[in-house]
User: What shape does this take?
Amino acid sequence: MENVKRLKISGIASLVETVLWTIDLLYTIFLAKGADVVIVLGLAFMIILFAGVAIAIVVEILQIPVLPFAVGLYLPIYLSTPIMVGGLVRLYFDKKKGITEEERKTKVNQGILYSSGLIAGEGLVGILLAVFAIIPVGAATLGDAINISKIINLGNIGGLVFFAGLVATLVAFINKKEKKTK
Assistant: This one.
C-alpha cells in the first residue's frame, strides 16, 4: 500500500512540475511579445507563489509525505523517471503472488542492494571521468582522448534501450536463486 502511495505522490509531483513548466513557458511568451519585464516578472512570481501555496495546502490536506513529493517536484523529469520505474519494479514484487513473506523481503532487499550498487558505481565513474578531464594528454585531456561519442552516438533510442537493459538486469538479479551451500 505504501508503494502505491509513493507512486501517486510521484504522479502528482510530475503533474505539478508540468504546470510550473507551463507557467514558465507563458512567462517566456509574454516577454517575447514585448511586455514590460518588471510586470511580467511580478506576475510570474505571484502566480508561482500562489501555486506553491495551493500545492502546499493540498499536500497537507491529503497527508502526503513531504520529502518524496518535494524530491519528485525538485528533480527534473529525466531523473524522476528512473526513480518511478524503480518504484514500479518494487510494486511488482510487493504484489507478486505465490511467494512467501520471507521471499518477498529477500527480493526487496536484493533490489535495494543492486540499485544501491548502481548508484555507488555511477558516483565512482563520475569521479573517474572528472579525473580524466584534468589529466593532460598532448594538446587535450585524457577525457577528450578516450571520447568515442563522435564515432558511436546512440542517441535517445540507444539510451532508452540501455535503460531497459538495466531494468532487465535489476529484475534478473532480484529473481536470482541463491545457491545452497552444504
In short: Strands lie at 136-137, 140-141. The chain has a mean pLDDT of 80. Residues 101-132 form the longest helix (32 residues).
